[in-house]
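Practice problem: predict the structure.
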Amino acid sequence: MKKLLVVFIFLCSSHIQSQEKKNVPLKNTQRGFLAIDFLSIDMPTSRLGIDEDNMGFTGIHYNLSFNNFYTGLGMYGSVRGRRGGFFTLGINAGYTSYLTDKLFVDTGIHFGGGGGGGAPDGGGAFILPHLDLGIQFEKFLFTAGYSYINFFDGGAIKSHQLHIGVQVPINLYSATFVNFEKKYTINDLEPTDWNKKPKKVSFILHLNNLSVKKSGALVGKTVRLAGFEFNSYINTNWFYFTKFDGAYDGIKAGYMNVLLGAGHHFYFNKNRTNILTKFGIGAGGGGGVDSQGGFLIYPDLSIEQQISNNTYLFINKGFLMSPNSYFKTSTIGIGLKYYSNINGISKNISSQNKRFKGFEAIIKQEAYFNAKRITEPTENLHQISLQLNYHLTKNMYLAGQTSFANFGNAGAYAEGIVGFGVESNYFTNNRINVFLQGLVGAAGGGNISTGEGFIIKPSIGLNYNINSNISIRSSGGYVKALGGKLSNLFFNIGLSYRLAFLMSD
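Answer:
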């Protein structure tokens, strides 16, 4: 009898373990690609009849692929001419058709909003269709063809031009969003598709001071920036990064920069103290900063010290300048960095617990009612916004948002803000939840009265689930510029794309 009882307990235990393993979320693959493109825009003749140099316009995009169709998001910035600080944000949609195994046709359209640099951008709304011929290589794809750009909401920028680009396949591996905050051990995950080498990444929130050395009337001034940075490691030492900053003090509102680059990580003191060197290139300007065409280079050195298991405090010193040093600053900053290993397991990592963390990418259209201007008549302001949420717990998230005007005679207006949100559990058959969030950061441009650029932006809203990955998201709230007259109610509506990534605790 005792033997039968032992056998029965063993069989039940094995069955429970097998059921637990079956409950590990499936690893889904979403095909996608990173794209970088360039076009040289023929700028309109000024009112005085003066011809202007072409504006070099370069973009970075990430698109999701669905068989031959693709859709995604992209940002553009000026890197040549005299419109430094001209930035846009928009959505992509396109179709790819292969003529041979290597040769294909790529046709699509980008719709967005933005402006700056004193350009005749009107309200900021524009379309950018293209028709390209492409060739596929082993690691990347190259495209070239025709494009047309039109700032149609009162803008004067309309141009036909050559369009060239490079596409690099980068797939997303994830679980469905309903699995976020579920925890598993390495033993649970070993017999599944998650048993791969994890990818090391880091997320940074930082403050930077730019001491202006060369740039006309701004020489000697200090520009204070707040921003976000994401690092992804190629191997143990080498990584690439993307960096976004906006000014909130020191000059009139409107300055921002977007940088891409690579770096090297030197480990000391058992990985508790580290030194990192970085070099980046990108676009920047606005807020009275004369960066000529907008192309910037960014050498930087930072030192970081561990303050908890995965969190580091760092200081950095570097330069941000145009290649010819027409615009030149010395930079110094501080920040918090969080490291994680995603979408894999490793027994060399101290923690044996793995948790699925939730991420959201939200694209929305937003309206400010009667947005105060500095000199122009008051009218509504409309903007396109991208918000990224990282879920700290089941009911709390960290948020970052960037927005660019697309209607309302304020094409140069832009925001870069961060903050926190809390949300309820889902109800009504897991379809709806409500959230409350508060964001702060930098905003300016487009003749909107934001003073030196610091704004606060609380809101309340709801999500409605369409399926496991996509929801409709809408909210309303209040925006206030602490140093300006912008003080308005706002409303937005958009779509949220949600995924869960496996991360180490």
